[in-house]
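Dear V.,

Thank you for sending over the compound details. I've combined the ligand you provided, NAP, with the protein sequence from our construct and run the structure prediction for the complex. I'm sharing the raw inputs here so there's no ambiguity about protonation or stereochemistry in the SMILES, which I know was a concern on your side last time.
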Amino acid sequence: MARKDDSLLRNLQKEHIEGKLCLITGATSGIGKETAIGLLELGAQVVITARDIARGQAVQREIQMKSGRSRVELFELDLSSKESIQQFVKNFTKRHKGLDLLINNAGVFHPERKESADGIEATFAVNHLGPFWLTEALLDGLSKNAPSRIINVASALHYRAKTDFLNGGAPLERKENYSGFQAYCDSKLCNVIYTMDLFRKLQSKNISVYAFHPGVVNTSLVREYPGAVHFIWGLISKSPKKAAGPLVQLASLPDPGPSGTYFHGKKRKVPLAVTNDPATGDRLRELSESLT
Ligand SMILES: NC(=O)c1ccc[n+]([C@@H]2O[C@H](COP(=O)([O-])OP(=O)(O)OC[C@H]3O[C@@H](n4cnc5c(N)ncnc54)[C@H](OP(=O)(O)O)[C@@H]3O)[C@@H](O)[C@H]2O)c1
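Below is the predicted structure of the protein with NAP bound, written out as structure tokens.
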């Protein structure tokens, strides 16, 4: 019986996603790479991005080999640079007029304070600001192909965020007493706030928006941390392939749940209350736009 249900589900996914254009950021490793393979296996047309094109080409070949499908395109994109995002959008829209699915997956978890190419604190820049600019620039394409979908890969660590950084200025720059952990939690809160903000704004456009937490996953996210962290992470985490399963479902099921839902794996969860506050959504949008 379970087997019958599984194949029914897979057929539903295939029917919905076959031939659709799916853009996944940060698919050179971890959850993004496995999600690209999963979507290709279902017959989707996949676009992946990489900061380093040579590395991206090697991953593109690996993804093609593992999925047994060839329909994966590669574009250069560095989410820490506004110039790179603008160039990407130019290149992408030259080739594709519409877009069916955007998965904002790329992310970093720096232990030490760094600045982006644009001089902005790097965790906020890569995890929120870059995806914000990218998404806003791709909304026309998503509207063209509506019903379409946006999935923001957030984290349960958004529950540990503080919101004072939303007041801008020094808290956003984080020049004093930097905590990589706090910067990461706060950036992931931004992912959920932005998801809810988009949900409210895109309701009439037939673009659904979801936030997704994959669980604790054995990827290279903690690559800059000491060996002991890797060791513990390895003990408590699941494989990227396992974590990608629910994300592939969220991406490919015809009706995974109401737009504006926060998922922990396959389960719907209530995110931090502040994420549903329209004034906070507006504040984050204002702040993000002011930084452009
Ligand atoms: N692993 C977990 O336990 C966990 C838990 C909750 C949420 N998440 C979220 O899951 C997402 C995927 O992370 P992961 O765990 O799969 O980590 P990962 O293996 O380190 O993958 C991160 C991806 O982001 C890309 N990336 C990093 N900086 C970038 C930039 N400036 N511009 C464009 N792409 C960039 C990386 O590309 P390069 O190869 O060029 O570095 C890589 O492809 C992240 O948003 C993360 O916050 C992960």
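A first observation: The chain has a mean pLDDT of 95.

Warm regards,
I. M.
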